[in-house]
Design a protein that fits this description.
The chain has 134 residues and is an alpha+beta fold. It folds into two domains: 96 residues, no CATH class; 34 residues, no CATH class. Helix content is 30%, strand content 37%. It has three helices and five strands. The strands form two sheets. A three-stranded antiparallel β-sheet has the order 1-4-5. Strands 2-3 form a two-stranded antiparallel sheet. A hairpin with a 7-residue loop joins strand 2 and strand 3. The longest helix has 23 residues.
Length: 134
């Protein structure tokens, strides 16, 4: 059993880049006759950074075996992550836990083994992308 990460191309760029600015908000509160107190907060600007890279990565687990002398193969797709998702989030945020439990039963492996297989393949890719991004 082994992990495969397949590079694919998306058709459209991701419109949800990180906000370019944090805007400070100021609200004055107080009772009549008292000196008003100032409360500060923040909001994000509407302008966002562009995310022009269309690369995405499909993470799957493959199992090859022989049945009556013929090679057979099973595969389970875990998730698909964009180039920027690899920088911003963990792959565990991109799959549904109940579906993963079903797939783990089919694969007959425990969750720790599953995460070790995925991390062994993803870590070098994430490091490469971080270097490109910086």
């Amino acid at each position: 059993m082994f992990c495969v990460i397949q590079k694919i191309l998306k058709k459209k760029p991701d419109p949800n880049g990180t906000h370019k600015e944090i805007i400070v908000t100021e609200i004055k509160l107080g009772f009549v006759g008292d000196e008003p107190k100032t409360s500060y907060g923040y909001t994000y600007s509407n302008e966002r950074f562009e995310r022009p890279i269309l690369d995405a990565y499909k993470v799957s687990i493959h199992h090859s075996y022989r049945e009556n002398g013929k090679v057979k193969k099973k595969q389970w797709v875990i998730c698909t992550m964009s180039y920027y998702d690899l920088l911003d989030s963990w792959y565990g945020d991109h799959y549904i836990e109940r579906e993963l439990e079903k797939k783990l039963k089919e694969m007959e492996i425990d969750e720790d083994t599953f995460h070790r297989m995925i991390n062994a393949k993803l870590e070098p890719l994430i490091e490469k992308i971080k270097l490109e991004f910086q």
